[in-house]
Amino acid sequence: MKRIARTAVVTVVAGIIGATLTGTSTAQPVATDQNPVYFVHGWGGPKDCDETWGNAVDHFVDEQGMQPSKLYLLRYYDGDYESKNCRDGVHYPDISDDGNNDGTRNTRIKHVAAAFAHQLASHDGEKIDIVAHSMGGLVTRVALLGTAQGWDGFPKNSDGSPADLHVDDVITLGTPHQGVIPKEGRDDTQWKSMLPDSEFMRVLHLPENRLSQPWARSVDWSFAGSNEDQTVKGESAIDIDYRANHKYLYLGGNQLEVTHGTIRTEVRGDHHFNLRHVHNGGTPTDTTEGRSPVALAWRAITDKDR
């Protein structure tokens, strides 16, 4: 994926999803007061920061005024972000050798999630927001689930009770909440866990593990997917028929295609996407003025009034 030039970025006007989608606006949040943000990449090999999150980092810093020191790019594969070429001042926490995570695609997603949960717990009560792509959304979801449910290997308080990770907002982009589209030749542990009929998917959707349960209610969950994604179907990415606070589905037919890759990188064409959105189980609304994926991610973690 080639990084889009910064000059192609369309400056985002103030407003909220829902209100902004229809052309009205509200006051822009003060970015200097924004919670620290973790970016969690997806399945594959070691990632390059600039190609993976460069557009998002530029948008958050240059367009929205966030301090680079509040951005964290999680490294969970051995060799992730070795060039550290995103932006001076951002953090690159490395969990590729933490706990039971060996930094490869054959590490169970649960073990990556446990290592991430311990990283989040290290913030010692500071509220955190998370932007996650593809499998990174599963890592995030299980980090919070496993901690809240007191699973072995996840952070606990000194009295043995589950730790509070203080995660405020999560948006997942193209995450296979109900599984990936099967592809030939992929047989590593993580990929097999993301198949629709896997044991991982079965456990994720057990009644006690769903986002409708009390353990998940302190977090504002947003799921975004695209009907043009050839790796994760849109319905899987929004976890259709299961609860999340906010769901966004790019319907296709846009001048700019929203693929599995561009759902984490596209900043152009803001307010020009065919988008279906639904909030807190309400009635779905379709618009032709939807936000670009990166702008949507920003609004999802900053707007409390959608």
TrEMBL record:
Q: Note whether Mitochondrion occurs among the keywords.
A: no
Q: InterPro entries this protein is in? A: AB_hydrolase_fold, DUF676_lipase-like
The name on file for this protein is: PGAP1-like protein
Q: Which residues form the signal peptide?
A: 1-27
One Pfam short name: DUF676
Q: Keywords of this protein's UniProt record, alphabetized?
A: Signal
Instruction: Report if keyword ATP-binding is assigned.
Output: no
According to the entry, every stretch annotated as the DUF676 domain falls at 124-183
